[in-house]
Amino acid sequence: MLTAVDHVQLAAPPGSEGDLRAYYAGVLGMTEIPKPPLLAARGGCWFQAGSVQLHLGIEEDFRPARKAHPGLRVRGIEAYAARLAERGAPVTWDDHLPGHRRFYSEDPVGNRLEFLEPTG
């Protein structure tokens, strides 16, 4: 029986850790969490906000996820979108999900991210 999503892993190209840290910690406001030593040797980085964990793993033949994406629930979506835009991240609003406000963005390596908040 499934009980929860433990984490979502996205791929990133070799050498992109600095850009990932700037975006996931600096722009999104997540906290970097340490990787176990054996996994840290592979590169990449892990981030957490509350119970949400995103793992960024290094992939030699990297191609960004343009359709597949994590859906991240936020509180105060208007202010959060403004935070991203002020820090140079793209914000594309989408009003096609009934009962939600949502927008899409991209991390610095081109992975798609969805941010949503229920409206009622």
From TrEMBL:
Residues 4-118 form the VOC domain. Gene3D superfamilies: 2,3-Dihydroxybiphenyl 1,2-Dioxygenase, domain 1. It comes from the Bacteria. InterPro entries: Glyas_Bleomycin-R_OHBP_Dase, Glyoxalase_6, VOC_core. PANTHER family: FAMILY PROTEIN, PUTATIVE (AFU_ORTHOLOGUE AFUA_3G15060)-RELATED (PTHR39175:SF1). This is VOC family protein.
